[in-house]
Model the fold of this input.
Amino acid sequence: MIRITELKLPVSHEREALYKKAAKALRIRAEEIQDLVVFKRSLDARKKDNIHYVYVVDVVVANEKKILEKVGGRSVTLSPDFKYRFPEGQIQMDRRPVIVGFGPAGMFCGLLMAQMGMKPIIVERGVAVEARRVDVARFWKEGELNPESNVQFGEGGAGTFSDGKLTTRIKDPRCRKVLEEMVRAGAPEEILYDAKPHIGTDLLQPMVKRIREEIIRLGGEVRFSSRMDDIEVVDQTVRAITLNHGERIETDDLILALGHSARDTFELLHKTGFSLEQKPFAMGVRIEHSQAMINAAQYGESGSQLPAADYRLTHTTQKGRGVYTFCVCPGGYVVGAASEEGRLVVNGMSEYARDGENVNSALLVQVFPEDFGSNHPLAGIYLQRELEESAFAAGGKNYFAPVQTVGGFLKKEQKDGVCATYKPGITLCDLHEVLPRFMAEALEEAIPAMGKRLRGFDCEEALLSAVESRSSSPIRILRDKDGESTALKGVYPVGEGAGYAGGIVSAAVDGISAAEHIFMKYKK
Done:
């Protein structure tokens, strides 16, 4: 196939126009193109009077070599091969591999293992997505938290109740494999080519169920309400794990896909002798605006045919601390994401249509190990808990979120703000009494600076909700170049919780990589 880049077309165009544009780049007639596949589509909105799509396409033509010789160059090349290929060979294992956690890393590690014939056993402390959805809805409506079934724990991991963003900065051919498996499981096909693909929580839920069913069909097992409570080690090598209901599972290969919120499991790892280290992460608030206002700021008057607008903003304070937006949820909602009683966490969520009245994003401040107050490997977790307890108390100790308008936060003058979307409810308060001083000062400097780059970002009506504390893991489980723990043989820490990923796709890719390493370890 031939790849053509930089094909620009108006927002409103027919597919026929793409064929004509590609044909013009190749200096042939549109009828000579036998097939055309969109590889990437991005929206260029830098000039409000000329908003357009930019395409990268792969085309099939009869005289490929001749055309490349004639027009080949920077924008017309031979298409690279992104097809995922399984490791070759056969394996023989004495004991089945065990995966702990069924978020993106554990799910895709399990799926690839099942496709390779390894028949993994997957244990997940939470419940299947059907029951999990009920538990989460009850929490949002009544404030009744189930510590083992919530936005953090359960089938699909924390990403199941999110916007389902699939953007990633890693350049890895496994990314394509992840997206293709998602489409096979029911995700919209445009995630294969959109520059900013997303699925939405409403489509994610049935999708993760279908992946589970595929793993089982291929001989794997998925056991819910099964928390790992102990690890049996002999001669610095894993031998078995024990679950919360007493079952003991022997294994030579343990994949830890814990997610960033399994704090009790991190305590177990520390006690067991794993090599853990502190790592920088970020915490802050959710900021919520009118979607119509952000659309106008990003698109001008051309927004009626365009998707709900997002943004990406960064600022470095005078003291050298980074502040940035993260996990923007256009047309979305701020949601309760607590997983521990007496501690409050906020997060963002969108459905596929992104048709809510507000847009929200995390507004995060860098937190460094020197902010933790201790050299203990889990000190970052203890700091998270401190802030979550402070937010819980400020909200009224009923999982209501403490909120304040930007005007109130910056000018100490509380005014009416955008309509809050957070459930189960909100409590107006002074967020300076919730956040540590370094975090409040960084936000006070960053918000006006970001308002100069995105009109309206610092408007007085924007609403801040606290506390966004689970953007990433504050620890790293040390591993070697093959992904194996440096402390215990046969253990493979993967994904966000282990400190090696930063989103759904990168976590899934990390899980796939672990499956490949284990396959090669047992290859005949």
